[in-house]
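Supplementary Note 3. Input sequence used for the single-chain structure prediction.
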Amino acid sequence: MSIAASAWPIANDWLVGRAAFDHLHYHLPAIQRFVADWPAVDLVDYASATTPGYHLVCAGVGRLGNAGPVALRWIGLAFTLGLVGSVGGWLAARRGWTAAALVAPLLGSLYVYSSGVWLLPDNAGWLGVWAVLVLALRRPIRLWGWLALMLALVLTVLMRQIQVWTLGPVIVAAWLDAKPARDHPPMSLREVGSVLAPTPRRIVAAIGGVLVGGPALVLLAVLYAMWGGLVPPRFASFHASNFSPAAAALFLSLIAGFGVFFVGWWWKGFTTLVRARRALLFAAVTVGLLAALVPHTDYSLEGGRYGALWTVGAKLPTLMHRSLLLACMAPAGAVVLASWLSLLDARARWVLLASCAGFVAASSMSSIAGQRYYEPMVLMLIAVLAGTQPERTSRAGIVGPALAGMLLAGLTVFTLARSGSMDYPEDPRGTQPFVTPIASPAAPP
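The predicted structure, written as discrete structure tokens, is reproduced below.
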């Protein structure tokens, strides 16, 4: 289905919308320059703010045949097929035919689709994130699993440096494998104490987890030394002067928005918390309110707050740069997340909590809080939660995910159909010169 939906836009070199703009002005020129300079590629100052793994793979494969724009787009599509296929396969092994409904939102997402149709490194990075998460959730993690995690971490950071946060859940998994948390009410103070209690075995295991991430950290350190920062020099001024304190608000709000369609999966956890864990619900609401009310949460191109949800929020009331929409959705998202996590075993719960915290922390350090960089992570998190919880939902719980997938697919078609052009005079990275693609890249001999 992904191939069929992507065939016409790729074959006709269709270029519309924000993703196509980035494709044409950043990632395509970077890949074509790598093709032209191969193997002596310049990894210091190329036309992308991300680590060069995606561009190197596309350029390397492109040199084996046709390195024209259309051929390169087919190569880039492989990462999206790998992402959707791995998520769907993992879910199918745990939920059977229900996996088709659970993976539908990921298939329908504008941001996942765009990164497959145009040359964007996003899905390559998300594929690495997915691999790390599902490997970290395995229990026990044997030698081959640790080696696979080491490789996955390296490849993930090579695709997008911001995903270095994935080392966090790996360390938490190692920590809890050394000594499992005791059986306490989910996310209670007693469980927190049991999870955090240091023991010699846990400390040694955590050091081992850091060592597993060592090659990825060395890779990032080498690139940092080459660039003089965390991004190539031409993007340094923009990314060094901005950060995104509204990251948590957007993350939780998206969980609320998509969580509505998965209510059949987390409702039991919510009713249990209402009956017996109201303090946890209060804490979740408080966290959500703080996330939405402390930073500015209104639409702002200059502040990097743009995308679907930010645009909707801009049409509703704001007060002192705080969006009423996010002020309602972020607390709801925190409740949905707490309810869902309460259904998992302690190890899975804390590995995923570490994943959420790591993702939000890393995203806060980015200059852009665009929905494009959050939605796929939220959809993958929801897929993991649905596939990890011990109890299956009823058939009625499948309708919501399927409906979400159809609505997202419809929104994708509508958005791209009305885009019409790539005229973006106010690019948020406007201080950086656009790069003209190489007109007619020759196929390598």
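Residues 26-419 form one domain. The radius of gyration is 22 Å.
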